[in-house]
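Case study.
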Amino acid sequence: MSAVSQANVADERLKVFNTELCPVRDVLDRIGDKWSTLLLLTLGEGPHRFGALKRAVPDISQRMLTQTLRDLQRDGMISRTVFPTQPPSVEYRLTPMGASILAPLRALSDWADAHHAAIKVARAAFDEDKG
Amino acid sequence: MSAVSQANVADERLKVFNTELCPVRDVLDRIGDKWSTLLLLTLGEGPHRFGALKRAVPDISQRMLTQTLRDLQRDGMISRTVFPTQPPSVEYRLTPMGASILAPLRALSDWADAHHAAIKVARAAFDEDKG
DNA sequence: CGGAATCCAGCCCGATACTG
DNA sequence: CAGTATCGGGCTGGATTCCG
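After joint prediction, the assembly is written out as follows.
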């Protein structure tokens, strides 16, 4: 990681996104882990039980659902409540911090809806040029 | 993929995030590919040459920089201009569509800055409980 | 129902070397 | 300077099986 100090002195005031200086990296890595965002958005509609989350995101595996929920819980984004019923049921819901990321996430989701068509067109055009 | 039709009829009006119905998935997969967001944010400050991007994101490899730029170009997010100088120089800049995603991205980035400390605390607390 | 544990394929991505 | 090509390790994540 000595490349960092090199880069700092080397350049004309470029913003540098390096791992330790940059909270963005830390958070974005989670957003980008393929399932976190979808689960957060789903939980944004209200608390869900394990099985309900699985149905809301059909192609997630049980393994990744469990793991992603643990990670989100670890980061303080969601809370996990076990109801000692028979059979047991577990409810997940957003914490205040988890709820606070919904707005940025929805902004991104809205952007995706709005531009998805344009992106598909751009991809097709690009791919055609290359053959 | 027949699990989809199952899920649709099975439940009480849950929003279902499945791949083909869901532009969000398509876009979020790119956001999450570890480098795209950082490059978009960097290009949001202005056009950059290849080498400048490499310095702005120090721990990206040449390979991933090239590949990520290609993908972003393919999606119509950035444009690539070659100047026939000696040695050659190549400038990357955001397209209008690429620029339009900056606001949501920055909202997320700002959220990350604001909550990074809280997340670290939550992680530490969670990890201590488990030992 | 909600998980945990194990096994294993695939790809992501970094390191390295070569080009115009 | 701005790439391309190739190799290979590691981690992601799916499938399956078992538990309370």
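Observations recorded in class. The helical segments of chain A are 3-10, 23-31, 36-43, 50-56, 62-74, 96-100, 102-130. Residues 49-51, 62-63, 65-66, 82, 85-90 of chain A lie near DNA strand C (CB under 10 Å from a C1'). We will return to this complex in the next lecture.
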